[in-house]
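Here is one chain, start to finish.
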Amino acid sequence: MMNVYLVRHGETEFNIAKRIQGWSDSPLTEKGKEKVAQTGQLFQAAHIQFDAVFCSTSFRAEHTTNIILDAVQQNHLNINKLDELREFHFGQFEGKDGNDLHRLLAKQNGFGDDVHAWLKAYRYGNQHLLAQSIQSLDASAENEQLFNQRLQRAWYKIIGQGLPESNILVVSHGMSIVAMLKAIDAQSTIYKSPPNASVTHLTFSPQQGLRLQSKVGEALLD
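Its structure:
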């Protein structure tokens, strides 16, 4: 059975400033680097060695990957950088204030000034209201269907290169991870990014496909 360890990148300057990242980028904070190193040390303590490594083409994901590989003393491994693992593209909202965006979306979706009610509605809803609302405001933002399709292509590449009894490290982004997990099990998580540097453990076999083995975003390295 293939083990896949899906990790969100470390905390970044944009995360701290609550700015929209998407396809834009910002460096990891010092705290972010430390937390990623701790995640790597958890892999090391659990005696998990990787047979293949994948990350998105965003620098924050690549930096996170290198810190983890350094912690497990596997810097020699080739990192497969995939465009398909990138974050959702926010169009004109890239780099903008996230709080301003949610105030705009609250009004657009009939919640007036009640941002809390909007956040609850989209996070616990059965549809990706955030992605749908952004795309309706800006046609240059990513289409949700195409977003999900490229993430599916990423899985084809990851699984295609893995061996039946291999350990695979995959470093990606908050919305991307949520979308990937929703595609496996719609009830597995809400529409809220897992914590930075957290791990979600999946398994894959031809008979059972991809299956969730840990709580989303928790470093449970069983």
